[in-house]
Amino acid sequence: MDSSGETQSQQQPSKQRIETAAMVGSGGPAVRVSSVWLDAWQDPVANVRAYSPCIRMADLTGDGEWRLLVADASKKLKVWKGTALQSEHNLLEPAVAIAPFYSDLSTPRLPALAVAAGPFVFIYRNLRPYYKFTIPPVDINPQEADVWADVKSDKLDFSKVAEELLALRDTGVSLCSQSRILLSIDENDVAARNACIAEYKTQPLIQQTCITCMETVKKNMEEPDAVSCLVIGTESCQVLILDPSGTSVAHK
């Protein structure tokens, strides 16, 4: 029996295995490892720069064809159908996360798309802007608020403001951005500090935070197209659960 054909097939590497070289330990011998992943599709000229939270799949048109959604660093929302780029949409801000979700029980079952950027959640329907939700500002520490209230009522001299705020910071109080900017100015630059205080004296004391992550949670059913709520994590260590419409905070 001629076994040359069998020998030749054994010598050819399998196309379904990707062999890579790896070093085991520090100065250890090189070993061969096999990757369990297969490249289903690769586009070297796609020019997409995006993190995992900005890459999702969704049945946008309700036809059973799931599209690949990517919000990249160039403020573009790109939609792929199969291996073809179907559409591009401009975003107002660089996205930190995107999430398709169903906000109601209307038919046909078409998901909305939430795009988190800065302190905002931009909600799209049919890939068109529909609503912009702004997360609520962070509560100001009462002691810090009292310091700025005394400044506005001229009860506290400008030279004492930085000292009061510095004492609060040393006790572990998380200061708002206005106070942090003031304390970042060189203490020897009295004119710059006084100008900063005079500017903030007439402004409301508001501390806005930013969104760092976003996901969805089913409201009362586990069906793929069940009504969902957006769950948002912020830079100020808060978790916000929005109502299904994405227009208000249901739980905080």
Notes on the structure:
This protein has 252 residues and is of the alpha+beta class. 21% of the residues lie in helices and 32% in strands. The chain has five helices and 14 strands. It has a four-stranded antiparallel sheet, with no helix packed on it. Strands 7-8-9-10 form a four-stranded antiparallel sheet, with no helix packed on it. A hairpin with an 8-residue loop joins strand 3 (55-58) and strand 4. Helix 2 packs antiparallel against helix 3.
Main β-sheet description: 4 strands, antiparallel
Q: Which runs of at least 5 residues are low in confidence (pLDDT < 50)?
A: 1-25
Give the overall average pLDDT.
84
Structural class by helix and strand composition: alpha+beta
Q: Care to count the β-strands?
A: 14
Summarize the structure.
The chain is an alpha+beta fold and 252 residues long. 21% of the residues lie in helices and 32% in strands.
Which properties best describe this structure?
alpha+beta; disordered N terminus; 14 strands; 252 residues
